[in-house]
Amino acid sequence: MSQASATAQRPLSIGPLELTVPVVLAPMAGITNTAFRRLCREYGAGLYVSEMITSRALVERTPTSMRLIKHHESETPRSIQLYGVDPKTVSEAVKFLVDEDLCDHIDLNFGCPVPKVTKKGGGAALPWKKSLFRQIVEGAVGAAGDIPVTVKMRKGIDEDHLTYKEAGKAAEGAGVASIALHARTAAQFYSGHADWDAIGELKSSISSVPVLGNGDIWSAEDAIAMVKQSDCDGVVVGRGCLGRPWIFADLQSAFRGEELKVQPGLGAVADAFKRHAELLVEFFDGDENHACRDIRKHVAWYFKGYPVGGEVRAKLATVDSLQQIDDFLGELDRSQPYPGEGVEGPRGRQGTPKRPALPDRWLDSQELSEDQRTSLHLAEVDSSGG
Questions:
Q1: 69 vs 33: CA distance, rounded Å
Q2: Beta 161-162 vs 149-158: how paired, if at all?
Q3: To which CATH superfamily is domain 3-261 assigned?
Q4: What's the pLDDT tens digit per position in 251-277?
Q5: How far is 108 from 153, CA to CA, in rounded Å?
Q6: Which among 97, 47, 95 is positioned nearest to 75, based on CA atoms?
Q7: Which InterPro entries match (predicted)?
Q8: Is residue 323 helix, strand or coil?
Q9: CA dihedral (134, 139, 142, 144) positive or negative
Q10: H or E element: which one contains 35?
Q11: Of 238, 286, 284, 384, whose CA–CA distance to 64 is shortest?
């Protein structure tokens, strides 16, 4: 029996949401806007989550946050990830989303390893403070009503300060609809290998809600291998889809027990790149220049491993109009086939292991001191999801 057929027909229920395939697009700051979500959705089924949105900014109705929570009419279900460190602010943000009927699912971010976040007690540092974590999750679930709330977290701060098992049980007790674990610590950042055994350990300790695995899924084969090794209920795909939105077609096929694998030639990759740019123009309300500035960061990801010369790559990385994109893509040899292993494997930022930046005396206790409580609001900054 093939790996694909061994995991065929594994639907995923997240509260009232029924996903035909157990696949979630991980929130990534500056990446998973409406344009990219729509592009990925065109290839395969799943739950496609927004960029991380700061709760305080949403409560204050900042223009950026109000733009980021918008979904295209084709996006169903509508999924939003929130980041926050204050239980009251997070609850207010959730209540606003629910009252205004702006989403069908809310994910809470406890995985960000970025130093400017963790050094103020946010992201992957926050679950160390047990009561604060529980208060935020309980408040969000209470404010959400019938809208399912989920959490995404890391293993912990470092190997000496792991939080995922205790936080997982607390989240389950608070009434979340699923728990996703990026199987790295904050200290690992994105380096090394994800600890899929930790996903299995979390799965074994959680009895009432699905557990999803995240980390080192670069292909559908990786997703199937993670499920087999950890017995997790679904997968969360982040950096593995950068420049490869068709990975969601591969994932859909694999979880349905099919053998189909998309292996696009250079012409198909060029078409996907152009489609992405067009959707970005729509997302930025017709502003081609803004859209083209945004698509530039995707050039290296889309054309990784393909025979595209440095001159053309450099041109694509400086485009400022759709016409320029057409002109530069026209210089490619569209007949070039899928190059194989050169386009596979890790992509996106890797980083190196580092000592996590934390607030003063953060590890002394798993409860907040008064000084730490008053300074936590500074952690609410826009950054990547973890």
A1: 9
A2: antiparallel
A3: Aldolase class I (3.20.20.70)
A4: 999 999 998 899 999 999 999 999 999
A5: 9
A6: 47
A7: Aldolase_TIM, DUS-like_FMN-bd, DUS_fam, DusB-like, tRNA-dHydroUridine_Synthase_C, tRNA_hU_synthase_CS
A8: helix
A9: negative
A10: helix 34-43
A11: 284
- Give residue-wise pLDDT tens across range 319-353: 999 999 999 999 999 999 999 887 888 887 777 88
List the alpha helices (DSSP H) in 256-356.
266-283, 288-295, 299-302, 310-316, 322-329
Q: Rounded distance, CA 88 to CA 140, Å? A: 9
pLDDT digits (tens, 9 = 90+) for 61-73: 999 999 999 999 9
Q: What is the largest CA-CA distance in the chain?
A: 64
The two tokens of residue 294 are: 């945004």
- Say which CATH topology domain 266-338 has: 1.10.1200
The SS3 of residue 291 is: helix
How do strand 178-185 and strand 161-162 relate by DSSP bridges? unpaired
Q: Which residues are catalytic?
A: 112
The tokens for 275 are: 């489609």
Q: How many residues does the chain have?
A: 386
Residue 279 pLDDT exceeds 50: yes
Residue 268: closest CA among 338, 331, 342: 338
- Residue identified by tokens 């009419």 is 73
pLDDT in tens, 165-205: 999 999 999 999 999 999 999 999 999 999 999 999 999 99
Q: Where are the domains of the chain?
A: 3-261, 266-338
Cβ neighbours around 220 below 10 Å, total: 27
Q: Secondary structure of 49-87 in the HEC alphabet?
A: EEEEEEHHHHHCCCHHHHHHCCCCCCCCCCEEEEECCCH
Read out DSSP for 178-241?
EEEEEEEETTTTT-S---HHHHHHHHHH--SS-EEEES---SHHHHHHHHHHH--SEEEE-GGG
Q: 248 with 262: CB under 8 angstroms?
A: no
Mean pLDDT, all residues of the chain? 93
Determine if the pTM surpasses 0.85. yes
Q: Over range 47-58, report the average pLDDT.
A: 94
Cβ density class 96-115: b for 16+ within 10 Å, e for less: bbbeeebbbbbbbbbbbbbb
